[in-house]
TrEMBL record:
Residues 86-277 form the FCP1 homology domain. The lineage of its organism: Eukaryota, Viridiplantae, Streptophyta, Embryophyta, Tracheophyta. PROSITE patterns: FCP1, PROKAR_LIPOPROTEIN. It is an enzyme of class 3 (hydrolase). It comes from Eucalyptus globulus (Tasmanian blue gum). One of its GO terms (cellular component) is nucleus. This is RNA polymerase II C-terminal domain phosphatase-like. It is found in: Nucleus. It catalyses: O-phospho-L-seryl-[protein] + H2O = L-seryl-[protein] + phosphate; O-phospho-L-threonyl-[protein] + H2O = L-threonyl-[protein] + phosphate. SUPFAM superfamilies: HAD-like. Keywords: Hydrolase, Nucleus. InterPro entries: Fcp1, FCP1_dom, FCP1_euk, HAD-like_sf, HAD_sf. This promotes the activity of RNA polymerase II. One of its GO terms (molecular function) is RNA polymerase II CTD heptapeptide repeat phosphatase activity. Pfam families: NIF (PF03031).
Amino acid sequence: MANLSKSKPTSFARPNPSLSFSIACDGTKRQKVECPHPAIHEGKCLLCESAVDDDHSVAFGFLHPSFRLSYVFADKMRELSTAAALGLKKLHLVLDLDHTLLHTIRLFNLTPGEEDRLIPEAEWNAVGGPEGQGDVFLTGTEAGEGSITKLRPFVREFLREAHEMFELTVYTMGGRVYSSRMTKLLDPDGLYFSDRVIAREDCTVRGRKSLDMVLAKESNILIMDDTETVWPDHAANLIAIEPFYFFSHGSKKRCVRPSFGHDGEQDCVLATTLQVLKEIHWRYFDSEPGIKGRDVREVVQQVQSQVRNISGDQASPGDAL
């Protein structure tokens, strides 16, 4: 991304702000403004370089560190982004990472059986495995202190097909370094997510997720997550799916059986969910021509029997709807 601190667009008129003053930590008087300009970096307007309070803007640190947009301009960007996606016959889909698209644990939490079978496979994927076909990866650097990640079955096909219908955004409670590693596994060429990866450091409320940082109108956003409680304000947008546990560690706490050692029982949650997403997309765009301004949450409500608590023991993808 361009150096925002040096970026000074000239397409906006110079402001005529209301002035106020505050006392800096060194005791000096500092002028502050209620700036009408859209973009703020490190507490200063990118146009007039005036100090701007955080109260007048929302953080978009996942786009660039210390970058914020005024509330008014953020709303404008949501309108423009939504309109652009609709022009491509797309909605917006926000995806969780852990237990939704993959499962990661520390190496020292592997059972002996898991270690004997999975470490060689992960090492092979790292140095010479077929590109794009591996699904177990070592995601740390030091033996015993790193981690291992298993991609959920069907995840590559899911992302490829979902990308045709949605603008995809990742929203995880994992840290920025971790989320960067995981999205690199899922999207090595940056075709699906681009810079739309929101991590724990970007959350505006601790322990909760919100759509305030997603640059799209809420009426055009779907959420796919295995944890409903982190979305208290957006239940109507949510497609809750069964969590994915491949490794033994952590599965007892959630009272689920890990996938490892049960190869004959394929996890088909993503395949089933994809069929539900196709149905929602079809109903939104094709079932009633000329109503592209409708609210996708109404469509979700129409098919709520298919989107609530989707689990791997449901019907096969072809029979899901």
